């Protein structure tokens, strides 16, 4: 057998092959049960100093750099480090433990993708994977993300306003709510296949907003974070970000957006209506029945001794922009 | 004669060996845990990680403690009984760290919040009762109290059966939707209680 030692100037296959085709080939090899022996040979043949650092390349989902307009308030907040944003995720489609989405999602296929905007609109349409990034100019938005579990992060998202997307479809007068749906693909999402991994949730994951909430300029369709496309554990290729609501409203890996007349069902509300409402606005005054929402732990850098417990703000600090939406509502009743 | 001597020796050795294993497998993980947590190498949220690890660890050790007697009886391995107290004390140690993590690292000594949580959240109330009972058992586990308390010692230490139930409920009520793991723990607890059902009917 010929064992070829590549010269340092030679490009490796993954550098010259289109990323998608390269990944496809790898998965094909895997399916043939060939990878075991094959990897041993190829890794010893290619072992070099630099490979020490790129060993897991094939296992890690590769993201691409994006062009975008920077958020002007970049220096005002301490960001949650990128590796924490990408390793601490609630995405039960890939397991209920915080570390599982990173571990179990790296083979997730985002291209091809189809995002359909339909329902009570005059011009329904579908976006392909490439169109997710090319239809609207991308802007950076640094938002606080407050999880219903009382921890929070500060994340530099990239994306465009949901309003832009919806306007393109021209909602009609019956469009009162917007319903979102995550991809349903148990072959790729182990949590949808196994009850144990998926936490007993009914899939596909669905979420919803009132039309005025959806049209608020803060409401973001995110396609990236930290300058790059989203990794799967954060909802690649496209997800919602509603910064004044608890994190579970910010549905991931969206395939369908439907404008509807009636309030649509939402996943956590369906599972435990007394604990999770449709609105789910961040509200320090209204506790989760089983824990306090008055304060939160902000995850930035720092280990066990980080003094990171801070007060939770109404509407997660975005009251100025969104409090008007709920002017005459009893927020204890409509939690 | 020689046979029985060597037999006795080997029991002593076996007990020592078993104790060494228990010390090692209980202490090493907790040292590594805090080492990586202090260095921020325990995932994005080391606080959640240490709380969960010590909580599950305490539950595992409690179940192991309760497994000792049935095992010793079934397989006639009397020496096993000698490690029961050690296991129980490690269960207490893990539970102690679990509570300490919650108060020191999660609530960050916000005592008003602690008081609020204990009063308002049933799963925390139940957890608190369990740790208080467990503390009483840990303190009275030394020989001095065992001798001094006589019959009431056993009565007090039967509280372990109540503790295991409280801890099961505490775990079940603390999760959002992933109830399978706590359910498995509760089922195992019931099996261990069933094995000593005679104790309860007396």
Short description:
The complex is a heterodimer of chains A (335) and B (202). By secondary structure, chain A is α+β, with helices and mostly antiparallel strands.
Write the layout of secondary structure elements.
The complex is a heterodimer of chains A (335) and B (202).
Chain A: H1 13-16, H2 19-31, H3 35-46, H4 51-54, H5 82-85, H6 100-104, E1 114-119, E2 125-128, H7 129-134, E3 139-146, E4 151-161, H8 162-169, E5 177-182, H9 190-193, H10 195-198, E6 206-210, H11 211-215, E7 220-225, E8 228-229, E9 239-241, E10 254-260, H12 267-271, E11 295-298, E12 309-311, H13 319-322
Parallel strand pairs in A: 1-10, 4-11
Antiparallel strand pairs in A: 1-2, 3-4, 4-7, 5-6, 5-10, 7-8, 7-9, 11-12
Chain B: H1 2-38, H2 46-74, H3 84-106, H4 111-120, H5 122-139, H6 143-149, H7 151-157, H8 159-174, H9 180-194, H10 197-201
Helix pairs in contact in B: 1-2, 1-3, 2-3, 2-8, 2-9, 3-5, 4-5, 5-8, 6-7, 8-9
Descriptors:
heterodimer, A: 335 residues, seven-stranded mixed beta sheet, 13 helices, 19% strand, B: 202 residues, mainly alpha, 83% helix
Report on the structure:
The complex is a heterodimer of chains A (335) and B (202). Chain A is globular and about 50 Å long. In chain A, strands 3, 4, 7, 8, 9, 11 and 12 form a 7-stranded mixed sheet that branches. In chain A, strands 2-1-10-5-6 form a 5-stranded mixed sheet. Chain A is an alpha+beta fold and 335 residues long. Chain A has 2 domains: 46 residues, no CATH class; 253 residues, Alpha-Beta Complex (Sulfite Oxidase, Chain A, domain 2). About 12% of the residues of chain A have low confidence. Chain B has 202 residues and is mostly helical. Chain B has one domain. Chain B is built from 10 helices and no strands. In chain B, helix 3 packs across helix 5 and helix 4 packs across helix 5. The longest helix of chain B is centred in the N-terminal third of the chain and has 37 residues. Chain B starts with a helix and ends with a helix. Classes of the chains: A alpha+beta (335), B mainly alpha (202). The interface between A and B is medium-sized, with 35 and 33 residues.
């Amino acid at each position: 057998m010929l064992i070829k030692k590549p010269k340092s100037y030679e490009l490796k296959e993954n550098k010259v092959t289109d990323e998608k085709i390269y990944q496809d080939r790898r998965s094909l090899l895997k399916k043939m049960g060939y990878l075991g022996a094959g990897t041993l040979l190829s890794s010893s043949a290619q072992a070099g100093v630099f490979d020490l650092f790129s060993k897991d390349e094939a296992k890690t989902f590769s993201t691409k750099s994006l062009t975008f307009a920077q958020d002007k308030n970049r220096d005002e907040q301490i960001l949650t480090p990128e590796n924490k944003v990408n390793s601490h995720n609630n995405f039960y489609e890939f397991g209920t433990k915080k570390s599982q989405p990173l571990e179990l999602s790296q083979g997730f296929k985002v291209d091809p993708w189809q995002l359909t905007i339909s329902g009570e609109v005059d011009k329904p349409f579908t976006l392909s994977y490439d169109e997710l990034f090319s239809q609207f100019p991308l802007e950076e938005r640094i938002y606080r993300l407050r999880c219903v579990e009382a921890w929070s992060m500060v994340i530099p998202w990239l994306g465009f306003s949901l309003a832009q997307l919806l306007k393109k479809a021209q909602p009609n007068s019956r469009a009162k709510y917007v319903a979102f749906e995550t991809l349903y693909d148990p072959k790729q999402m182990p949590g949808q296949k196994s009850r144990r991994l998926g936490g007993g949730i009914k899939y596909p994951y669905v979420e919803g907003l009132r039309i005025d909430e959806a049209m608020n300029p803060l409401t973001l369709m995110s396609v990236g974070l930290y300058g790059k496309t989203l990794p799967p554990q954060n909802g690649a290729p496209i997800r919602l970000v509603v910064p004044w609501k608890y994190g579970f409203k910010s549905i991931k890996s969206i395939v369908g957006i439907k404008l509807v007349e009636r309030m649509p069902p939402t996943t956590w509300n369906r599972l435990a209506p007394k604990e999770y409402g449709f609105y789910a606005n961040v509200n320090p005054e209204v506790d989760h029945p089983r824990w306090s929402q008055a304060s939160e732990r902000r995850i930035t850098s720092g280990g066990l001794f980080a003094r990171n417990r801070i007060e939770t703000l109404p509407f997660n600090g975005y009251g100025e922009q969104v409090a008007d939406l709920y002017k005459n509502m009893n927020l204890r009743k409509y939690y | 004669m020689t046979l029985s001597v060597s037999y006795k020796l080997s029991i002593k050795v076996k007990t020592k060996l078993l104790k060494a294993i228990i010390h090692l497998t209980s202490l090493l993980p907790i040292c590594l845990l805090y080492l990586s947590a202090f260095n921020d190498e325990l995932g994005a949220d080391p606080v959640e990680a240490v709380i969960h690890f010590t909580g599950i660890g305490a539950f595992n050790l409690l179940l192991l403690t309760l497994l000792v007697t049935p095992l010793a009886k079934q397989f006639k391995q009397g020496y096993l009984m000698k490690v029961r107290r050690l296991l129980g004390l490690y269960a207490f140690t893990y539970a102690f760290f679990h509570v300490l993590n919650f108060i020191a690292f999660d609530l960050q000594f916000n005592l008003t919040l602690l008081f609020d949580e204990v009063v308002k959240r049933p799963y925390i109330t139940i957890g608190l009762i369990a740790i208080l009972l467990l503390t009483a058992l840990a303190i009275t586990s030394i020989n001095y109290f065992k001798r001094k308390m006589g019959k009431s010692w056993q009565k007090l230490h039967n509280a372990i059966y109540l503790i295991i139930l409280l801890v099961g409920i505490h775990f079940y009520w603390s999760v959002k939707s992933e109830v399978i793991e706590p359910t498995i723990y509760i089922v195992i607890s019931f099996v261990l209680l069933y094995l000593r059902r005679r104790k309860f009917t007396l």
